Amino acid sequence: MEEFIGDLWHRVVTRQAQTDYPDAQVELAVLTPQLAPFYRAMGGSPGKVLEASQPRAFNTQRRLVQRIAGTHRRFSVSWQDERSVRLPPSLALFPERDINEDLYFWLTALAAKQSYLQHWFIDNLRASYELLAEKPGLKKTYNRLVSAVINQRELLTGSSGADQEGEMAIRQALRDPGCIQSLPRTKVGLLPVPLWLYPPPMQIVSIDSEDNLDECESGMATVSQIYGSRKEANRIDDSKETDGLLIFQLESLFSWTEQVELDRCQDEDDEDNLASAVEDLDIISLSRQRRAGAAKVKFDLDLPSVHNDELPVGDGIKLPEWNHQKSQLVKDFCLLQPMLADDAVPVAIPEHLNRTACHLKNRFAKLHLQRQWQYRQPYGEELDLDAWLDNETSPVCSQEEQPCFKARTANARELSCLLLADLSMSTDSALNADQRVIDVIRDTLLLFAEALSGSGDQFAIYGFSSVKNKQVRYNLLKNFSETYSDQARGRIIAIKPGFYTRMGAAIRQSTEILKQQKSQQRLLLIVSDGKPNDIDHYEGRYGIEDTRHAILDAKRQGIQPFCVTIDDKGNDYLPYLFGSQGYALVNDVSRLPTLLPKLYLNLVGLNS
User: Fold this and answer.
1) Is 357 found in the same domain as 379?
2) pLDDT at 301
3) pLDDT of residue 518
C-alpha cells in the first residue's frame, strides 16, 4: 500500500510540474532526412552529422512544485563540435507541433552560421542578427519562435524576483538580437534559451596513461557510446600508494554475515537500473588500470589464435592516414595485413544460388567480346573484294598499294573492377530467423563473380576489417591474375564477420592494386553496411575525413569509386564521401545479390 501511494504521489506531482506538451512532440530522428540537406544548403560543414544531444544539469530558478518533483534540473540544449551538430532528441516545448518543427530548422540554420562558439551570449546574438540579415525568409519563423519562447519563459519564471534584470535582457535580446551587447550578472542561473546554441560539454583532462591508444595523440578522454547515448569520459588514476594487504581470518567473514538478519531481496531488473544510472551520469570515469591481466586476456580473445586464423601474406603493408585535425597525411600510420584463407575447400556454387547464377552468367556471356570483321585493312586473313573492285574500277589510278584485305579482330573492352566488401562485426547481425547480413554479402560476392566470369571482364574481390591501426585485415578472395574457379569460390564461402571498419586504409590499398591494371576504365566497387569506425580515435569526423581523403586520392589517379550500402543512415554521410552520384542505398538487403550485377552494368555503360 505504501508503495502504491508513493507511486501515485510521484505521478501527480510530476504531472503538475510538467511544462512540455507530449501531444505536440517532434522527434529528431524523423526530421533528420530533412535537416541534414538543409544544414548543408545553409552553408554548414559537409563533414558534420546531426546527432542527438544529452540532457545537461543547469542551476536555474525553479518553482516549488518543480523542486518537490525533482524536475527541471537537466535540459537538452543544442551544441556542436568538430564532428557533429547536437540537437535535442525530441522537442515538445510548445503546444503546436509545427512550431517545434520550426525550432529544429532554426537551430540547424544557426549551427550552419556559426561553427565555433567563443562567447555564449555575444556569439548567439551576432549569429542570429547576421542570419536574419542574410536570409530574410527566416524572419517570420524567427519572430513566431521568439513569441512562443517568451510566453513560455513568463509562465516558468514569473514576473518578480532579484534576477529579473537578466531575464528581461534575455527577452529583449531575443526580440532584437542587435540591441544588447552584454548580459547582467544574476545570482541564480537563467533558464536555457532553446533558440541558441551552447558550448560543448566541458572536457576533463585525463590522467596520462602508458597506453595512448596506438599513437593517438589526444590527451582528452574519448567520448564513449553507451546505451545509445554519448557520454563524456575522463581517465582517473586509481593506483594508490596506500594500497596494501588486508589481513583477517577468512572464516570470521562468513560467520559475521550469517549472524546479520537482513531481508536480502533480489532485484530482477538489474539491467534497467544500470541503464538508468548511466543516463543520469554526465561524465563517466575510466580507470587508468584498465589494462590489468584479465583485461589483456579478454582483449586478446577478440582476435583468433594463430592456428585458427587465416594465413598472413607477408609482413604487412604500411599505409598513411589523414589526420584532419592537423590537416596532414601521417605516413606509415596503418599496418595493413593481407590475409588468405589457405584452408578453404574448393566448392561449387551453392544449390540455392545455382539458378540465379546460371541466368546471370548467360546474360553476361552475351556481353563477351565477339570477333568482328575489319574491312579495308593493309593485311589480313582474306581478300576484301569490295575494296579490290573499288580500286580496280577507280578512274584515278593510284601508285600506292591500297588496303584490300579484311581481318577478324576483337574490340577489347578495357575495364577492370575491384569489389571491396566490408566484413566488419556488424555484418553478423540477423536479418531474419535464417539469414544474417554476412550471408547476404556472401551470396552477393558469389553472384557477382559468376556474372563477371561470364562476361570476361577483369575483376578482383577483397574483403576488409580492422582492429585499430596496427591490424587492418585485407582478405584476398580473388585477385586479377587468378582465374575464377572453385578455389576462389571456396574462399568467398569461407568469409566470416570480422571486427571494425577502417575504410580509408582498405581504399588506399585497393587503389594501389587497381593502379597496376592497364585498363582504360578502373572501377572500385565498395559494399558496406555502415560508416567508417574503429575502437580507437577512428570514429565520427576523423574516420569520415580519412575515408574522404582516400576517395579523392583514388579519383585523382583515374579510378572510379562507387559505394553500395545497406545502411539506412547512409544519406547522412555518403554524399560527402562519394558525391551525390557516387553511391547507392539498398533498402531491401535481401535484394542486394541480384541488384549488384545490374548496378555494375549501369556503371560500365552496358545496361542494354
Assistant:
1) no
2) 46
3) 84
Distance (Å, whole) CA 448 – CA 417: 11
Cβ burial, residue 348 (10 Å; 0-12/13-18/19+):
exposed
Contacts of 49-52 with CB under 8 Å at 24 or more apart are 49/83, 49/84, 49/85, 49/540, 49/544, 49/572, 49/573, 50/84, 50/85, 50/87, 50/108, 50/572, 51/84, 51/85, 51/86, 51/87, 51/230, 52/28, 52/86, 52/87, 52/88, 52/89, 52/229
How many domains, in total, are found in the chain?
Answer: 4
**Whether 436 and 396 share a structural domain:** no
Residue 494, pLDDT above cutoff 60: yes
C-alpha distances (whole Å) from 155 to each of 18, 183, 467 are: 12, 21, 53
In this structure, what C-alpha cell is assigned to residue 248? 583477517
The rounded distance, in Å, linking the Cα atoms of 428 and 495 is: 11
Report how far apart, in Å, the C-alpha atoms of 136 and of each of 101, 140, 145, 175, 598 are.
Answer: 19, 8, 15, 15, 46
Are 109 and 231 in a shared domain?
no
* Residue whose C-alpha cell is 551470396: 443
Residues 453 and 384 in one domain: no
For residue 73, CA distances in Å to 7, 56, 151, 277, 565 come to 21, 8, 20, 16, 41
Domain that holds residue 284: 202-237+274-299
Q: In the prediction, which pLDDT does 220 show?
A: 37
Q: Give per-residue pLDDT as tens, 379-415.
A: 777 888 888 788 777 776 666 677 888 876 655 567 8
What is the pLDDT confidence band of residue 361, given thresholds at 50, 70 and 90? confident
Same domain, 422 and 497: yes
333 & 470 share domain? yes
Instruction: Please list, in sequence order, all residues whose beta carbon lies within 8 angstroms of the beta carbon of residue 354, skipping any fewer than 6 positions away.
Output: none
Q: What's the whole-number mean pLDDT along residues 2-11?
A: 77
Amino acid in position 307:
H
- Convert the pLDDT of each residue in 190-245 to its tens digit: 788 899 999 887 654 444 444 443 444 433 334 444 444 556 566 666 555 555 55
Cβ count within 10 A of residue 243:
8
Q: Is 265 within a domain? A: no
Distance CA 227, CA 225 (A): 7
| DSSP conformation class of 159 | S
Considering only residues 401 and 560, tell me which one the structure prediction assigns the higher pLDDT: 560
Q: What value does the mean pLDDT of the chain take?
A: 80
Q: In this structure, is residue 304 part of a structural domain?
A: no
Do residues 21 and 160 share a domain? yes
